[in-house]
Amino acid sequence: MMETRGIEQMFDFQRLPNDGLVLVLLLLYSPIGLCLMLLRIFIGVHVFLVSCALPDSLVRRFIVRIMCSVLGMHVRQNSPRLRDKQAKLLVSNHVTQFDHNVINLLTSCNTPMLEGAAGFVCWARGFMELGSEGESRAELAGTLQRYCVTPQAPPLLLFPEEDTTNGRAGLLKFSSWPFSVTDSIQPVALLVRRPFLAVSTPESTWLKELLWTFFVPFTVYHVRWLPPMSKQEGDSHQDFANKVQEFLATELGVVSTQITKADKAEHIKRKRHTAALAAAQATSTNLGARPRTVPQGFMSLSRGAEDPRVVRMAQQVKDVLPDIPLRVITMDLLRTNCVDTTITNLLERIEEYPTEASSDSASGSLRQQPSSSAPSSSHAAGAGPIPTIKPAADSFGRSPGDRHMSLQERKEALYEYARRRYKDKHALNQEDDL
Q1: Are residues 223 and 190 in contact, defined by beta-carbon separation less than 8 angstroms?
Q2: Which domain range does residue 151 map to?
Q3: Polar residues bias located where (predicted)?
Q4: Distance (Å, whole) CA 90 – CA 77
Q5: Are residues 218 and 92 part of one domain?
Q6: Among 31, 116, 158, 304, whose CB has the most other CB atoms within 10 angstroms?
Q7: Predicted confidence (pLDDT) per residue in 15-66, tens digit
């Protein structure tokens, strides 16, 4: 099982640095960065038009590379003589959303779009549309095999990690399917550095990454060409992938891990859940107050409240306790993740909550009756009598048995009231049970 500490080091989960001095410098730089970003957006449109107008050639790559330097994307390369012109497959580690564009500035290559929408955006980002949507990895590998045997076709560029890392700690486990395309590949080591900010964060879109690239003074992409590698006789595709991963990790000075793309997604999901629980616990001590916005790494409390499962559970509790505000119910559900536990919690502290005005609610009847008076019954329009609900005790029971009976009676009365309201609403036979 993967170590949480290891996966935390492989990704930058926040954009801004923790160093106070760097934050002050970034704040002072912000006006310049905003002006630079607006100017680079204007220049970037021209770079896109030039790259579309000129045919793929050494001249175009040189011109676009110079213009990308103006945009803050500085590309350097080591050992260009090691570039094998006969290699039909390039394999690289994955750091940013623009790795394929950077390597394409140095050599002609194509990168297939594996995830995301096809069409204009796919083409504009420099991806190649190959195969059909929903195609499995095995089917995609077969399509790429046919592409590689096509004469004069540019080489393919693939990222076996299938997701980005920060490039400083380790490599994700390489997928085996890219190594089934051909028996000979050329590894490419990629290092990315920039001042102030992280080069990428999980779940950030390519458009946000582009704007941050325009905002910072520069981002340096260092491309290192490595000697070609061939699969040995008897090696499986996964064995070949592991060898290439170890070789790339050694050249980059990082660790070759068994952490996969799915492990990264699971870790992000776990961080979301932890953030939601922390936010719910922070607000549970003051449920009657207006909820505060608590920034969390990946997800605030409001995002948790929009979960369809939470909304469905909240409606179930609302049917039983119609006078409790939906906001209060949702916050307790985010903490307990259980309908019955939330109902129990709210019943135990029902006097603390601001209730919603409702002439036919059970809690409204409780507040209108003095504790010393006898319980009275009310009638719903066009229906039988609403069950009588005993008022809350003036004081807490002295023994656990007394407290349990008081709570149990109130719960049973409210459940019965909810059943009656449901029957009245749907015009059900009063003799039937829910």
Answers
A1: yes
A2: 1-259
A3: 356-369
A4: 15
A5: yes
A6: 158
A7: 998 888 999 999 999 999 999 999 999 999 999 999 999 988 899 999 999 9
Low-confidence winner among 68-72, 151-155, 188-192, 288-292 (lowest mean pLDDT) = 288-292
Boundary-marking domain end, from 349, 381, 411: 349
Split into its structural domains, the chain has a count of 2
Asked if pLDDT for residue 343 goes beyond 50, the answer is yes
202 lies in the same domain as 100: yes
